[in-house]
Amino acid sequence: MTTIAFIGLGNMGGPMAGNLVKAGHTVRGADLSVASCDAAAKAGVAVSANAVEAVAGAEVVVTMLPAGKHVLGVWREIVPAAPTGALFIDSSTIDVASARAAHALAKEAGALSLDAPVSGGVGGAQGATLTFMVGGGVDAFTKGKPLLEAMGKKIVHCGDAGNGQAAKICNNMILGISMIGVCEAFALGEKLGLSHQALFDVASTSSGQCWSINTYCPVPGPVPTSPANNDYKPGFAADLMLKDLKLAQEAALASGSATPLGAEAAQLYALFAGAGNGGADFSGIIKFLRGA
Ligand code: NAD
């Protein structure tokens, strides 16, 4: 059993911390939001007054926060406050540069650290079925893996510091681009008199197949569990897709990579979210593309 501090008990962090409790660990949590703290307390998390108090005596510290500036702000406070030898894991989705800066803070203090962003959304966080994409040294990965297994079902070591975040934004750039491509094809098929089911039956078993059509089809009918059948309620909100596409563009600029389709996808999701659809599922962009 491990004593774990969990900072950031929101939509994702709350249920993840609850799964660590279920696995038998002692979890001490902190969050700026009283509502998040109350919900986590109901799941068995011992709520502390603040992050610094939560990390006292912790063997492992997990952060699940909105963006890089929050992670670096919190890590600057908690890395010096945690016991020597603590392992730091950040599971937020943040920019690669901030992730590497967070690792550097831990390294300067002689601590092990991992960036371990997730995919699988709130459902995956609740059901402990998340996929973790992990960056950091082998020692840190070996120590952290059993805890990640209490919160997820697939744990992939992607390489050194920051590589978990790199894998996350590359994957989600593929997803954003592929969803737009699938939506365009369905909108074109409609104009050509092709039924949704016919296009699905062909494309989902032919060379057009991909997760965006086979599992998350953006029109109602062919895949009953996709958000299209539920008036595009998320699911995965367009605002979060836009966040990840922007992170991919920042990384492309910083590394000198050409990602013209990633740039176009970021622009389209910015227009879609800016038109008041940020809270809708990202597959709802089909409605926007029909009108374009
Ligand atoms: P959220 O807004 O529900 O939770 C973030 C929590 O962090 C909030 O409760 C907030 O009060 C807290 N917080 C902010 N600053 C803090 C500080 N200084 N100290 C303590 N607590 C602080 O967000 P979420 O949906 O849980 O997402 C968390 C991270 O996971 C984000 O980076 C997001 O991109 C990523 N993510 C989310 C999803 C999803 O489907 N929601 C999926 C994959 C990854």
TrEMBL record:
It is an enzyme of class 1 (oxidoreductase). Keywords: Branched-chain amino acid catabolism, NAD, Oxidoreductase. SUPFAM superfamilies: 6-phosphogluconate dehydrogenase C-terminal domain-like, NAD(P)-binding Rossmann-fold domains. GO terms for molecular function: 3-hydroxyisobutyrate dehydrogenase activity; NAD binding; NADP binding. The keyword Oxidoreductase applies. It catalyses: 3-hydroxy-2-methylpropanoate + NAD(+) = 2-methyl-3-oxopropanoate + NADH + H(+). The active site is at residue 168. Residues 3-159 form the 6-phosphogluconate dehydrogenase NADP-binding domain. Its EC number is 1.1.1.31. Pathway: Amino-acid degradation; L-valine degradation. Residues 162-289 form the 3-hydroxyisobutyrate dehydrogenase-like NAD-binding domain. Pfam families: NAD_binding_11 (PF14833), NAD_binding_2 (PF03446). GO terms for biological process: branched-chain amino acid catabolic process. Belongs to the HIBADH-related family. This is 3-hydroxyisobutyrate dehydrogenase. It comes from Chelatococcus reniformis. The lineage of its organism: Bacteria, Pseudomonadati, Pseudomonadota, Alphaproteobacteria, Hyphomicrobiales.
